[in-house]
Amino acid sequence: MTRYAAAVTPPSYHHGDLRRTILAAAVGAIAETGPAGWSLRELARRAGVSHAAPAHHFGDKTGLLTAVAAEGYTLFAEALEGAGTDLHDVGLAYVRFAVDHRGYFEVMFRPDLHRADDPELTAARDRADGVLMRGVRDVRDFAPGGPGDERTAAIAAWSIVHGFADLWLSGALPADLGGDPVAAARPVIGLLFTR
Amino acid sequence: MTRYAAAVTPPSYHHGDLRRTILAAAVGAIAETGPAGWSLRELARRAGVSHAAPAHHFGDKTGLLTAVAAEGYTLFAEALEGAGTDLHDVGLAYVRFAVDHRGYFEVMFRPDLHRADDPELTAARDRADGVLMRGVRDVRDFAPGGPGDERTAAIAAWSIVHGFADLWLSGALPADLGGDPVAAARPVIGLLFTR
DNA sequence: GGGCAATCTTGCCAATGACAAGATTGTGCT
DNA sequence: AGCACAATCTTGTCATTGGCAAGATTGCCC
Questions:
Q1: What is the structure's pLDDT at B11?
Q2: Domain range spanning residue B4?
Q3: How close does chain B come to A2, measured CA to CA in Å?
Q4: Is the pLDDT of residue A15 over 50?
């Protein structure tokens, strides 16, 4: 006969969409205060359920973060695929995703936070990796010396966009770059391509 | 009349070098299990002191991480300065530092873990930033269009080495790159310079 | 409509970070 | 030498947390 605190929907024993609610709350919390700035119990309170409810869907905290990373890689692959075939555009989409979906991005590249061998996660990650590598292969300018240079070029492109995104998110870049990270990244990434 | 567990030195009420001991233990723990894979009490136990002893030197956990970041930026500036004036070498020193001093590096670029406005920290960070920017200015190839392009080039160089280091540390890069990250980074970074 | 699995709850425990108050020791001043 | 005082470290305590166990409630399928 206990009542629930949040109650957008009428109170019932079964939440209905707890897994998604907790997942979304986690992503939001990570984006705001980092991967360590919240607690499982806090998310449960915010969702209007008991402190042990999330455990049924995710096991433990690492399980929740694994689910965040897996969904993150799926959205990531979709975002990169949607950017077209031009590597420059894919790179900008990379930066855009990191900034717009910070809550996912901050977990995806941190194997100490999630279970990196999770099947669902590895599948989504392999898909995203495939988009990245395919994008590079489509640019011939990058392979002057054979297949070995092709991978070097892929890693260079990956590094520069990943580095820019990470530096932007950490606030390390100069403030006068403006408020639009994608616009700021454009000439930076361009430096890798123009010769 | 209590005795101490660790006791490399004969037990005494005053540890003698607790601040340094805890700091070093924290850096080691972060390198091994990440910024969240340990506890203040665990470090205190390992140092052979009571659970509240570290608080006197660092205040709270954030204070300890702030000290780690500050010392990290100091070592970082020294490492970059020691690499000479060639931007390529500075970039490799950047990667080398990230890998060799992972415990520092993982905290330095994570403002949600430390107090980014700490005076000692900002001073050390400004010094490291100065080395980076100075290194870029010394390379004229990067400024074909005026002072604006110079900063773009600096950010590009910074992004590619930072991105490579972060991807390497996260284990995201292909395994067949070999075990030496600096050697693997050399041709990647080189792609930014050769035209 | 009855069994059954999924979902969620309450209750509990050890560990943690933070704080308060007290004990011990080194240091400087007279 | 002796004494006040500050620095350092300890014990004790508390709220919060993650995780586990056991039980309650509900939806679903035969």
A1: 57
A2: 1-59
A3: 36
A4: yes
- Kindly state whether residues A124 and A50 are assigned to the same domain: no
What is the Cα–Cα distance from B161 to B158, expressed in whole angstroms?
6
Same domain, B70 and B9: no
Q: pLDDT digit string (tens) for A119-143?
A: 999 999 999 999 888 877 776 566 5
Predicted confidence (pLDDT) at residue B194 exceeds the cutoff of 90: no
Question: What is the model's pLDDT at position B2?
Answer: 37
Nearest to B108 by CA among B68, B162, B151, B135: B68
Q: Taking CB atoms and an 8 Å cutoff, what residues of chain A touch B188?
A: 152, 155-156, 159
- End position of a domain, from candidates B10, B33, B59: B59
Two structure tokens written together for B58: 């660092």
Yes or no: say if B195 and A192 are a contact pair by the CB < 8 Å rule: no
Last residue of a domain, one of A12, A38, A59: A59
Question: Is the CB of residue B110 less than 8 Å from the CB of residue A171?
Answer: no
Residues B130 and B154 in one domain: yes
Phi-psi region of A16 (alpha: psi -120 to 50; beta: other; left: phi over 0): left
Q: What are the backbone angles phi and psi of residue B38, rounded to the nearest 5°?
A: -155, 170
Chain position carrying tokens 């030195």: B9
**CA-CA-CA-CA torsion for B160, B80, B58, B109, nearest 10 degrees?**
-10
Give distance CA B3 / C1' C19 (Å). Answer: 25
User: Cβ neighbours of residue A79 under 8 Å, at least 6 residues apart?
Assistant: A93, A96, A97
Protein CA at B53 to nucleotide C1' at D14, angstroms = 18
> What DSSP designation does A11 have?
P
Chain A residue at shortest CA distance from B142 = A191
Q: Which helix (H) or strand (E) holds B117?
A: none
Same domain flag for B139 and B71: yes
Q: Which of A10-24, A38-52, B30-44, B64-78 has the lowest mean pLDDT?
A: A10-24
Q: How far is residue A4's CA from residue A9's CA, in Å, rounded to a whole number?
A: 10
